[in-house]
Known about the structure:
HAT C-terminal dimerisation domain-containing protein, single chain, 341 residues, protein dimerization activity, 0% strand, flat
Amino acid sequence: MYAPIKLYFMDQKLTKSLAMTKPFFESLDSLCVLHFLQNILDEIQRSEMQLQRYYTVVIDLHRIVMNLIHNLNQRLTNQFFGMNTRQVLKQIEAIDEQKVIVLIQSFNLFIKTVIDCTESYYAKDKAYYETLSCFHLQSNGFLIWKDLLDVVDLISIPDLNIDKLYNEYCDLKVFYEHIIHTDGKLKEQVNTFIAKQHEHINSSASPMMSETENDTSDDENMTHKSRQTSDAHIRSDQLWAYLLNVNGNTTPNMTKIVSYLFSIPCSNAFVESIFSKMKHSWTDYRNKMDVQLVAAELKLRTNCEYTCSYFHDYFLSQPVLLRKIRTNDKYERKKQRICEN
């Protein structure tokens, strides 16, 4: 990974600044530290990327933070900092064993510092987020009445009928236990339900990618997009949408709680992404765009799931729309809006 950077600096003419940089890239110690940071920072980044997903909400936060702390502690226990780091440490050990001890101590100190900072930042609200996490499928308290009741006491939703909520809970519990013991896996059933919510999806082939196909699994692979087969990686919002809609009985009280919890984001990353998209749309060359046009483009960029090929086929099948695109008719709506204002 660092070979091109190293080669670039080593091939430059010797200057004062290069004289300081060259020993760094020639040192095995530096190479070992860089490999270590690559592994540990990647671990941290994976958790950060999970927090930035647009569908990550408050019930996910406890699991993400605790998984990060657990993984870092596991590295301390196993004293494993990556295969490349291990190989370089062996090379250094053949030269100077004491230096290896110093490097490992510094690695341990770095990881412990990250853990301490994370725990100190999270400690204040840990109990709150841990209570809410029972609505996540991977939680030990998932569909446990006592934990659900703790959430009700914590968030205090008005006009909530607890007696009816208990009846709804019992129905959902029976329904959930039934579907997880059927032949089809829960994830497949949820994916089928979500796919049916999209207007243009059919069972054989689809011109549009569903959200479950397009999502990146941050839990297992941060690089490659792939359909996960494990029930453990079902999106919580899609699972609850499935449970509340497919279940034969109405669940108004449970729906209130789920709607409340899934409306609280973990971070402002999604909002920031909207501003970023707006910046790309409303440029210096397009500074005469009105608010309605910017809003329309943002809605398309954010919510549209059509593939390019589907868009192409759709436009070709709409002669009226094509005619308006080729003529001044496409400005009629704008003129009408201006007149209305």
